[in-house]
Amino acid sequence: MHEVCRTVEVTPERRTELIDIEIKVTNITSAAGAPRSHLTAMCEGVDMETASKYGNSVTHEFVLNNRCFDAEDPRNGTITRQLATFGLHEETGVRYLMEMEFVLLNGEKHPVSLDVTDAIRVTQGATHKIIHIEVEIELPEVIGNGDGAFDPDLEEWEDIDVDIPI
């Protein structure tokens, strides 16, 4: 026979935060596709008992694939993304970098590297903190050659004749 000796009530608390990234892009129509992006120096984890952040810096990899054109000038637009993270480090002096690699319509790769430390704004949502990153970039104006963002890198086909008995 088992008997309840002690009851412990717990309330789960959210320990992750939301990153809300918004990048205003001049000449967005020069991009053949969404850029693969990296946000560096984010916190590695949280000590659940003390709620303090710890660990080495980690890099989040993502694609900025939510695109909205400006109504006034459709050559420009905004790309956005939201993702979950353990958040910013508690100590000061940490520099946060965002690196993006665009493929332009002419097939060239156009890397963009930004120190976004001063562009970070933190607000409190209903259940967790929201880290806002808002920056502006400009892409060069290019004319495409129809190749697009895909690089399938196929080798030559080799035809093989196979006899099929009927």
Helix share of residues? under 10%
Mean pLDDT: 87
Query: Helix/strand/pairing class, anyone?
Result: mainly beta
Strand order of the largest sheet: 4-5-1-9-8
Largest sheet: 5 strands, mixed
Computed Rg: 23 Å
SS field, number of helical segments: 0
Tell me the overall shape: extended
Note down, in words, how this protein is organized.
The protein is mainly β. The protein has no helices and nine strands. The chain has strands at residues 17-26, 36-46, 53-63, 66-69, 77-85, 97-103, 109-115, 120-124, 129-138. The strands form two sheets. A five-stranded mixed sheet has the order 4-5-1-9-8, with no helix packed on it. The chain has a four-stranded antiparallel sheet with strand order 3-2-6-7, with no helix packed on it. It starts with 16 loop residues before the first strand and ends in a 28-residue tail after the last strand.
Key features?
mainly beta, 0% helix
Structure summarized in a few sentences:
This protein is mainly beta.
Describe the protein's topology.
Blueprint: E1 17-26, E2 36-46, E3 53-63, E4 66-69, E5 77-85, E6 97-103, E7 109-115, E8 120-124, E9 129-138
Parallel strand pairs: 1-9
Antiparallel strand pairs: 1-5, 2-3, 2-6, 4-5, 6-7, 8-9
